[in-house]
TrEMBL record:
<feature type="compositionally biased region" description="Basic and acidic residues">
    <location>
        <begin position="1"/>
        <end position="27"/>
    </location>
</feature>
<keyword id="KW-0413">Isomerase</keyword>
<dbReference type="GO" id="GO:0003755">
    <property type="term" value="F:peptidyl-prolyl cis-trans isomerase activity"/>
</dbReference>
<feature type="region of interest" description="Disordered">
    <location>
        <begin position="1"/>
        <end position="32"/>
    </location>
</feature>
<dbReference type="InterPro" id="IPR002130">
    <property type="entry name" value="Cyclophilin-type_PPIase_dom"/>
</dbReference>
<dbReference type="InterPro" id="IPR029000">
    <property type="entry name" value="Cyclophilin-like_dom_sf"/>
</dbReference>
<comment type="function">
    <text>PPIases accelerate the folding of proteins. It catalyzes the cis-trans isomerization of proline imidic peptide bonds in oligopeptides.</text>
</comment>
<dbReference type="InterPro" id="IPR044666">
    <property type="entry name" value="Cyclophilin_A-like"/>
</dbReference>
<dbReference type="Pfam" id="PF00160">
    <property type="entry name" value="Pro_isomerase"/>
</dbReference>
<protein>
    <submittedName>
        <fullName>Peptidylprolyl isomerase</fullName>
        <ecNumber>5.2.1.8</ecNumber>
    </submittedName>
</protein>
<feature type="domain" description="PPIase cyclophilin-type">
    <location>
        <begin position="102"/>
        <end position="259"/>
    </location>
</feature>
<feature type="region of interest" description="Disordered">
    <location>
        <begin position="53"/>
        <end position="86"/>
    </location>
</feature>
């Protein structure tokens, strides 16, 4: 017999899948529209002009942000590969810490370069350029999944760095169960994406309570207890407007981000 909690999670996943299908359709229409406009203006677009189409964690389209109601997955703003990912410049055998000074308190998490070299290298490159500075964590979910999502320079779920990075460490949290999900434990930091493989950009999510998700989101960091409490305090305040998915009522603005080798 299916419990009410299992049924609720199943409905949340089904709702998310419907939303993703609608987003994919919107993305196709947006790309077609942009292509027609570009042709009419005789504009040559190099390397994927509509750089932000859907909304999962690293996107393309305008309303493709990392969203989904009490859905089972965070969203990013995925971009098309209009630029190459940063050249590898980290020690792939070392561990790194990403430190975020935010309006809600200090947030920090450890990253193992050996398991997620592309992700760590990209985040260090972006942080060194000040990419995350003065950006806000635009999404909080308090139903179905429990995450705070950050890393979008636009602040609406549609922004990204103009390139994508490959998925990594997808088996790091174990094998998916019969429901197709694994548990992302509280304290996990993972990449958002557009629900398609290898579409991570700059958006990431902080898991403040165990959450069931498909093993499709690169887990690349782990928060310490102090950081987890900061995120949990933001979650306790809830979502603006009282919904279960949206901008956090407690604004979280990243004033300074840095990635340093441990």
């Amino acid at each position: 017999m299916v419990s009410s909690d299992q049924r609720r999670r199943q409905l949340a996943r089904e709702k998310f899948e419907r939303q993703q299908r609608r987003r994919e359709e919107a993305r196709r229409k947006s790309k077609l529209r942009n292509t027609v406009i570009a042709a009419a203006l005789a504009v040559v677009v190099v390397g994927g002009g509509a750089a932000f189409a859907t909304g999962a964690f690293d996107g393309d389209d305008k309303k493709k942000s990392d969203s989904a109601a009490p859905s089972e997955t965070p969203k990013p703003s995925a971009s098309k590969d209009s630029a190459p990912e940063p050249k590898m410049a980290i020690d792939q055998k070392a561990s790194y810490t990403m430190s975020l000074k935010t309006s809600a308190g200090d947030i920090a998490f450890k990253m193992a370069a050996e398991k997620t070299p592309h992700t760590v290298n990209s985040f260090k490159s972006l942080a060194d350029k000040g990419y995350f500075d003065n950006t806000k964590c635009h999404r909080l979910t308090t139903q179905g999944i429990f995450v705070l999502q950050c890393g979008d320079p636009k602040g609406d779920g549609t922004g990204g760095p103009g390139y994508t990075i490959p998925d990594e460490n997808l088996t790091g949290l174990g094998k998916a169960g019969a429901d197709g999900t694994v548990t992302y434990p509280a304290g996990t930091v993972a990449m958002a994406n557009t629900s398609q493989p290898h579409t991570g950009g700059s958006q990431f999510f902080l898991v403040y309570k165990d959450s069931k998700l498909p093993p499709s989101y690169t887990p690349f960091g782990t928060m310490d207890a102090a950081t987890l409490k900061v995120v949990q305090d933001v979650a306790k305040a809830g979502v603006a407007g009282g919904a279960g998915d949206g901008a956090p009522k407690t604004a979280v603005t990243i004033t300074k981000a840095a990635v340093n080798k441990d």
